[in-house]
Specification:
Order of helices and strands: HHHH
Helix content: over 70%
Number of helices: 4
Distance between the termini: 11 Å
Shape: elongated
Number of domains: 1
Structural class: mainly alpha
Keywords: Membrane, Transmembrane, Transmembrane helix
Strand content: under 5%
Radius of gyration: 18 Å
Length: 78
């Protein structure tokens, strides 16, 4: 296990620089689309369905980000 004091600052900066920006934008777009379907089009069922997408998008993006962090920490241990 790598101590947080032993992690090079380049690794931390690289992880911070590649945030979840694309996933956040997709989630915001999904919320906007859900509101459009629900209120503008009056299709409440489709609006609720699309409204469930943001949590899935963010969960998948978080999983891949955690895998990236794990791989970088494994490289430091090797």
């Amino acid at each position: 296990m790598v101590d947080s004091d032993d992690v090079p600052t380049e690794v931390v900066d690289d992880i911070d620089a590649n945030g979840l920006g694309t996933a956040v934008i997709a989630s915001i777009g999904s919320v906007a689309l859900a509101l459009y379907f629900y209120y503008v089009r009056g299709d409440k069922q489709r609006g609720q369905f699309v409204g469930l997408w943001p949590t899935t998008i963010l969960a998948v993006a978080s999983y891949f980000k955690l895998e990236e962090i794990r791989q970088k920490l494994d490289e430091l241990d090797a």
